[in-house]
Specification:
Blueprint (H helix, E strand, L loop, with lengths): L1 E3 L14 E5 L3 H14 L2 E5 L2 H10 L4 E5 L7 H11 L5 E6 L3 H10 L3 E5 L3 H32 L6 H18 L2 E6 L5 E5 L18 H5 L7 H10 L4 E7 L2 E11 L5 E10 L1 H22 L3 H15 L4 E6 L6 E8 L9 E2 L4 H8 L3 E3 L1 H9 L12 E9 L2 E10 L8 H39 L4 E5 L7 E4 L3 H5 L3 H4 L13 H16 L4 E8 L5 E12 L5 E10 L1 H11 L2 H9 L3 E5 L5 E4 L1 H7 L3 H4 L20 H5 L7 E7 L5 E11 L7 E8 L8 H5 L6
Helix pairs in contact: 1-5, 2-3, 5-6, 9-10, 9-13, 10-13
Length: 710
């Protein structure tokens, strides 16, 4: 596919900034790149094929070529090799995906003049990088042309000044509007010319520094200062290229010897391009990548906050830095990370009217210079909290319009000030910071929930399990209680490594247990079964198994979940009761609701009247603590005194208490307790329950005197 970006407007009459060839197998990225470059004023030709890209590049003139790491027909490096061999002077920008910067390094080594990483801001950075690369290439050609013309015109050293003036005249018009700085120095490293619109960015006028030595201009006595040393090497015939930060701007500097044609060195020629925006964009890209990395590698939230502090400190002054968090519905702020020269880390604080709360309320970044802070004070928007700072800069931490915190940097020194540029930068990186903090907090909260859940499951009196609903009941999870109940470690059972869930069931009970379970699953109801199992040592035990099926969105059974408890002792007691035929007949035909309870307070049996009285089936009552049905309270201590009954320290008789109904409400009852003994068997407590007699009605006058609402 070969496509040209359409013109942005039919009224456009100015020539394009240049012609650009884009080679990218991703047609969406191809289109977005073409649109971004077209908006900037470039004429764009876009192709997805490597072979077609090579053909166009070698048959047409392009000012720059953008080559993605993925193209069709050929590998990107084969295409790059062909371009470098045939078009050595055309800028070639290699594009890589985030996380594959090693390919960019390889591409630079293969001859690419620059590279870009595809990030969220790629289409913003791309036009600037292309413009910079084209301008640098054009300048280099012009410089070479002018240098050759200058060297060719110099015949004698005494004509240097005349040649310099001629050079300045020829580049004067070009440099008036170009975004760079050109200068020349003599053999004493004294400025003989300085031109270019870039001078205004560092507060200078053309030729303003003429006559000054380089060290006077740099205000240094150090001859080894990198910028001075590079110019000294140029006098020895060595060209240098380096980055130089000057007056808060960053320049790409190239210096080389200025010499007559095939003659001696006469001075130094230098050129500097302002690359501040590009370098800052690269630093921001690197910061975002490292913030994401920190979220994955930090051991805890405090370490993550410390990493974020260090990364922000590379983008702007951040000696004083803190993060404040606010939970939804809470009326306080917490400060999990706080580094400050003037103030100790605070504890949780109630929400007030400080600058931090102002950012939370408005959801907007705030740069509180002394003047801006005074305006907010006069308007009553904020109050003075903590020590006075010179500049205070805070941005909200938000995910999907949910603001949960504030990130702040502040300064106490006049020499450290923040500008709108730092505010925009901090606002941009804060979105990434908010995402990693929110994700990490969610992960830590999930880990804590899992820890609590694991602790609760581990403390259950039995084995919690989840099995597949297959023919073997293959275990997916079993709790730690399996060792005590079954004699197996959890890892022995998960995945049925040593034994599957079905084979734990006694062979004589296995058939009907499987049938009952399948019926419960089919009818979408819980199952409650008592059957025998065989432990790892071959011991036979009785268990109570209660559980249910887990269904997927389509109704498919995903597995079985439940709890298995040991009821061997209870089963033995029940078997003893079976021999008490007379007792059983009286027990079953009694007019009162009766519960039989052992010394440990566990319900051994319940008669039919108890089932009706408590609205619960016998299977729901047997094996449960009696306190689940008859809860104790300070005014009604029974059944907490059940032990006294077994020790003959508690006499029978009616006692007023309450029972807990199935819906959780308490119901007043009268309870009578007595011991039931049989030779050879442990004694049992017989608890007879009946509804309590209603309290006598209150007199009307007494009811009228009661306050409303009580």
């Amino acid at each position: 596919m070969v496509a040209e970006a359409p013109p942005m407007s039919a009224k456009r009459t100015s020539p394009p900034l240049g012609e650009v060839l884009v080679i990218d197998a991703n047609e969406d990225h191809l289109t977005l790149s073409a649109i971004a470059l077209g908006r900037r004023g470039f004429k764009v030709t876009a192709v997805a094929s490597g072979k077609e890209g090579l053909r166009l590049a070698l048959s047409q003139a392009f000012d720059a070529i953008i080559l993605d790491h993925k193209v069709r027909d050929l590998s990107a490096f084969e295409v790059l090799k062909g371009l470098v061999g045939r078009l050595p002077h055309t800028p070639k920008i290699f594009v890589v995906a985030s996380g594959t910067e090693d390919q960019a390094v390889k591409a630079l080594g293969a001859g690419a003049t620059g590279y870009l990483v595809k990030t969220a801001r790629y289409n913003e950075v791309l036009p600037m990088e292309v413009e910079d690369q084209i301008e640098k290439a054009r300048i280099k050609v012009r410089v070479q042309e002018q240098g050759r013309a200058l060297a060719a015109g110099i015949e004698e050293r005494r004509r240097l000044e005349e040649t310099m003036r001629d050079f300045e005249e020829r580049i004067g018009l070009m440099s008036k509007h170009a975004p760079f700085i050109l200068w020349t120095l003599d053999m004493d490293l004294r400025f003989t010319s300085s031109v270019g619109s870039g001078l205004a960015r560092i507060g200078l006028r053309p030729n303003q520094v003429n006559g000054l030595t380089l060290q006077e201009f740099a205000q240094t006595d150090d001859p080894d200062m990198p910028m001075v040393a590079a110019h000294r090497r140029a006098l020895q015939g060595e060209a240098s290229r380096f980055e130089q930060e000057w007056h808060e701007r960053i320049f790409d500097v190239h210096v080389e010897p200025l010499r007559e044609k095939d003659g001696p060195v006469l001075g130094v020629f230098g050129i500097a391009l302002d690359i501040t925006e590009r370098v800052r964009a690269e630093r921001v890209q690197s910061a975002l990548y490292r913030i994401t990395q920190a979220a994955s590698t930090a051991e805890n939230l405090h370490e993550l906050f410390r990493s974020i502090h260090g990364i922000v400190g590379e983008l702007m002054p951040a000696k004083n830095f803190y993060i404040a968090l606010h939970e939804p519905g809470a009326d306080s702020l917490t400060f999990p990370y706080f580094v400050d020269e003037e103030e100790d880390p605070p504890g949780p604080q109630p929400l007030g009217r400080g600058l931090t709360e102002y950012v939370l309320r408005t959801g907007k970044p705030v740069l509180a210079t002394p003047e801006a802070f005074e305006e907010l004070l006069r308007a009553g928007e904020v109050e003075q909290i903590g020590p006075n700072s010179i500049d205070w800069l805070g941005v909200p931490l938000a995910v999907k319009d949910r603001i949960f915190g504030v990130l702040v940097v502040q300064s106490y020194e006049e020499g450290v000030r923040y500008r709108e540029e730092e505010k925009d930068l901090l606002r941009f990186v804060s979105s990434q910071i908010a995402m990693v903090i929110d994700r990490r907090r969610a992960e830590e909260s999930l880990r804590e929930s899992e820890r609590v859940l694991s602790s609760l499951i581990g403390s259950l009196p039995g084995v919690a399990y989840r099995t597949r609903n297959d023919e073997n009941w293959t275990n997916e999870f079993v709790s730690e209680g399996c060792l005590e109940l079954l004699g197996y470690q959890p890892e022995d059972l998960i995945g049925s490594r040593r034994i599957c869930g079905r084979d734990l069931i006694h062979p004589d009970d296995r058939g009907w247990v499987l049938q009952e379970t399948e019926a419960a699953v089919r009818e979408r109801r819980p199952y409650r079964l008592s059957y025998r199992i065989r432990t790892a040592s071959g011991e036979e035990k009785w268990v109570w198994d209660q559980g249910h099926a887990v269904y997927g969105p389509d109704g498919q059974v995903l597995g079985l979940e439940g709890l298995t408890t040991d009821v061997t002792e209870w089963k033995g007691a029940v078997e003893s009761l079976k021999s008490m035929a007379v007792f059983r007949a009286l027990f079953d035909s009694a007019n009162d609701a009766i519960l039989l309870v052992d010394r440990a307070g566990k319900i051994l049996d319940a008669n039919p009247m108890a089932e009706a009285f408590l609205a619960r089936e016998r299977g729901e009552l047997v094996g449960r603590p009696v306190t689940d049905v008859v809860p104790p309270s300070p005014s009604r201590p029974f059944p907490r005194r059940l032990g006294d009954l077994f020790e003959d320290r508690l006499k029978g008789g009616l006692q007023d208490t309450t029972v807990l109904e199935a819906d959780g409400r308490r119901r007043p009852v009268s309870l009578q307790a007595r011991l039931v003994r049989e030779a050879g068997a442990d004694p049992m407590a017989e608890l007879s329950l009946r509804d309590a007699e209603p309290a006598p009605a209150k007199r009307d006058s007494e009811a009228e005197s009661r306050p409303r609402g009580t």
